[in-house]
Amino acid sequence: MTFSRKPAKARPPLGEPALYNYAVKALGRRMRTEAELRRLLISRAGPGERGEADVRAVVARLKEQRFLDDTSYAETYARLRQENEKFGARRVRQDLRQKGLRSDLVEKTLAASYGETNEEALARQHLERKRIKKPENEKETARVMRRLVAAGFSTGVIYKILRRWEVPEESLAGLESMGEEPREE
Could you tell me the residue range of the domain that residue 126 belongs to? Predict the structure, then answer.
């Protein structure tokens, strides 16, 4: 037996005042980049040139009122990911680019946030936060390596940590194929 869903009611397109209220409520729920907010507003705006003009007007008004600021968003996002999640700069760079921020803004923000950071100490804090213990065999070593790569740490730092844990060289040699630097898009 299959359950069928009722088709969602078509929402009427919003004009500029309603779009502004919608945008303020969306920003009240969580911080957003300009690109994220534009995508959200375009889905609710009227069709054609009039809808696009309304979205541009709302975004300009929000920027003027300082409700929408990509620079402060990037700084806050990078600081929180570094302090709370203990993520490396690569992971934060990837996340900020996915959110639609300009590359020059991302690089400037990461240079300010991660410029003086000891990547090895941050990686150790990440391992501690995730309660990851010293690996006992090759399979666990590979798991630790994958977790640290996903968290945005360089393979050089990862190998340094594994060597300090006195992981056997044959386990590290097995990771060489996996240890290639991830490509950034």
Answer: 119-174
How many domains does the chain contain in total? Answer: 3
Degrees (nearest 5) of the Cα angle 166, 125, 133? 45
Q: Are residues 40 and 80 in the same domain?
A: no
Within the chain, residue ranges assigned H as helices are 16-29, 34-44, 48-64, 70-80, 89-98, 103-114, 119-129, 138-150, 155-164, 169-174
Distance CA 93, CA 113 (A): 11
Residue 151 in tokens: 């968290």
* pTM score, whole prediction: 0.79
Is 127 within 8 Å of 148 (Cβ atoms)? yes
**Would you tell me how many other CB atoms lie within 10 Å of the CB of residue 146?**
13
Candidate from 57-61, 107-111, 127-131, 137-141 with smallest mean pLDDT: 137-141
The size of the chain, in residues, is 185
Q: How far apart are CA 31 and CA 87, in angstroms?
A: 19
pLDDT at 183: 47
